[in-house]
Amino acid sequence: MSDSAMVKECLFEAAGLKKEYDEGRVQALRGVNFRINPGEFVAIIGPSGCGKTTLLQMLGALDRPSSGELQFRGKSIKDQSDAAAYRAHEVGFIFQAFHL
Questions:
Q1: Domain segments of the chain: what residues?
Q2: pLDDT tens, 77-97?
Q3: Least crowded by CB within 10 Å, which of 9, 14, 31, 45?
Q4: What's the whole-model pTM score?
């Protein structure tokens, strides 16, 4: 794949991503926007309770956003009809609490 083709292809893209709990009283994510391209290394950092795990769970199709758009290779993750297949073939996930 040429360098110009790699720049155009996007692995993950989020636009206005929000996650609310308790009928909107708790906002785990508030309008998150980002783009991750092939070959990029990304670190998700922040204080405890800022939404890092919530975001990772959405990227792994384990949770859905309250609003906004989240895509993997141009396809919506929140509309994944087969989330298990997506996780098995597209992403790897190691659980924070060692769920088995």
A1: 3-89
A2: 877 677 888 888 888 877 767
A3: 45
A4: 0.81
Q: Are 33 and 14 in contact (CB under 8 A)?
A: yes
In the CATH hierarchy, which top-level class contains the domain 3-89? alpha beta
Q: Which amino acid is at 49?
A: G
* Cα–Cα distance measured from residue 22 to residue 8, given in angstroms and rounded to the nearest whole number: 38
Sequence letter at residue 44: I
Spatial contact of 70 and 59, defined as CB atoms under 8 Å apart: yes
d(CA 82, CA 27): 27
List the structure tokens of 46: 């922040």
Are 28 and 54 in contact, with CB atoms under 8 Å apart? Answer: yes
